[in-house]
Amino acid sequence: MNHEFKLKYDELKDNDPSQKEEDKNYFAPSSTRNVCFVQTDGKMLFLNYGYLISGEYLPNESLITLYFTSHTIILKGAKLESLYQDFFNHVPRLVICLDERYEEISENNTYTIHKIEVSINN
């Protein structure tokens, strides 16, 4: 086996995408970005960031409103400022709703979503 082949093999092995852990956020650049909203009953909806028109954060009401071309999403929860900033940068991939009674044991120390309201725009 020649030395160049071994280097190429090691490079392929180190860059194996099947060995990487799945994350809830996007970190690598890509042309397609979607965000998936997961309800407490298991219902899921994904929308493309390309159709996100604007977002609004109301700290006194602890809610974020996201306006897509086809849907309006309202997120209610706690400590939502960091999530709003992440939406501004198109970072979140999964937004998972968690029942309020489980907030104390949540592994997510930055924010908690208690309710996701989805409405279809006409």
Please describe what this structure looks like.
The chain is an alpha+beta fold and 122 residues long. The protein has 2 helices and 7 strands. The protein has helices at 3-14, 81-88; strands at 34-38, 44-48, 52-58, 63-68, 71-78, 94-96, 112-120. The strands form 2 sheets. The protein has a 4-stranded antiparallel beta sheet, covered by helices on one side. The longest helix has 12 residues, at 3-14. It is globular and about 55 Å long. The N and C termini lie far apart (64 Å). The mean pLDDT is 83.
Topology:
Layout lengths: L2 H12 L19 E5 L5 E5 L3 E7 L4 E6 L2 E8 L2 H8 L5 E3 L15 E9 L2
Give the number of DSSP strands.
7
Question: Shape from CA axes?
Answer: globular
Structural class: alpha+beta
* Adjacency order of strands in the biggest sheet: 3-4-5-7
Sequence stretches where pLDDT stays below 50 over 5 or more residues: none
Report helical residue fraction. 10-25%
Please trace the helix and strand order, writing H or E for each element.
HEEEEEHEE
Strand residues, percent: 35-45%
Computed CA radius of gyration, to the nearest angstrom:
19 Å
| Average of per-residue pLDDT values | 83
**Helix count, per DSSP?**
2
Sheet with the most strands, sense and barrel status: 4 strands, antiparallel
How far is the first residue's CA from the last residue's CA?
A: 64 Å
